[in-house]
Write a structure and sequence with these properties.
The chain is of the alpha+beta class and 253 residues long. Helices cover 53% and strands 12% of the residues. It contains 5 helices and 6 strands; from the N terminus they run H-H-H-H-H-E-E-E-E-E-E. The strands form 2 sheets. The chain has a 3-stranded antiparallel β-sheet. A 3-stranded mixed β-sheet has the order 2-6-3, with no helix packed on it. Strand 4 and strand 5 form a beta hairpin. Helix 4 packs antiparallel against helix 5. It is elongated.
Length: 253
């Protein structure tokens, strides 16, 4: 069926006249029927307006953008923040100065107390140093009297009373000097002055802060560095060495 329809169309096309002869009369007739057009005319343009009043545009009333708003807020907050930071720094500085002042004042109080106490303790240092020679002389006077002279040499009743009386007077003199020395040393001790003898008892070990070694020698039964003899007794004033003791030290090695 398709082939038949195609064949009919081909035959119909063959019987038609040429293209130019067919189209020309049609175009001519069409041009004869069309009225002649004059030059083109422009149609009047029309504009339409709204009866409502337009709102006045004010640039300052327009809402600012987000960036400008944050910038202005930051500019407004910056002075306050700067002032707050400066006040905080000032407070920290003042607090530091206050603490330092308090610490300095307390240190000054402690130093003043120590100076006052030191002045009280060592106010008589010069007087005590001058008094040492008198105490040494009194001690030498007591040391010159032998112990054998302080007791009766003979308990025989036939001994002349003059001899007994002589020994008694010497003993009384010695006792008086000894009592004077005891009272004097007690008075000096009340004011912080003490006398020490490193050779008393078994003998102390040599201490360079308290003793002054004048010689060294071998001593049987003693350790090296031990004090076995005192040439001059030492004195302390409230724990401070007023005069070091002059001693002899053992050296067996």
């Amino acid at each position: 069926m398709i082939q038949r329809s195609l064949l009919r169309h081909v035959q119909a096309v063959r019987h038609l006249p040429p293209y130019a002869s067919r189209t020309t009369p049609i175009i001519r007739g069409a041009t004869q029927r069309l009225p002649a057009l004059s030059s083109p005319q422009r149609l009047p343009s029309q504009r339409y307006y709204s009866a409502a009043a337009e709102p006045a545009t004010n640039p300052s009333s327009e809402p600012p953008s987000t960036g400008s708003a944050s910038l202005e807020a930051q500019e407004q907050e910056d002075p306050i923040k700067k002032e707050l930071d400066s006040k905080n720094r000032e407070i920290i500085d003042l607090k530091d100065r206050y603490l330092r002042s308090v610490a300095d004042f307390r240190n000054l109080q402690d130093r003043t107390k120590r100076d006052i106490q030191s002045a009280r303790d060592f106010a008589i240092q010069k007087f005590a140093a001058d008094l040492i020679e008198s105490v040494d002389n009194l001690d030498r006077a007591l040391g010159t009297v032998p112990a054998s002279k302080l007791a009766p040499q003979n308990s025989d009743p036939d001994t002349p009373p003059e001899s007994k009386e002589y020994n008694k007077d010497l003993a009384n003199l010695y006792d008086g000097l000894k009592m004077t020395e005891t009272i004097l040393m007690g008075t000096l001790k009340k004011h912080g002055m003490e006398r020490f003898d490193p050779s008393e008892g078994e003998g102390e070990m040599f201490n360079p802060n308290l003793h002054e070694a004048t010689f060294q020698t071998k001593v049987d039964g003693k350790e090296d560095g031990q004090v076995f003899m005192t040439q001059q007794k030492g004195f302390l004033l409230n724990g401070r060495v007023l005069r070091a003791a002059k001693v002899g030290v053992v050296k067996n090695s």
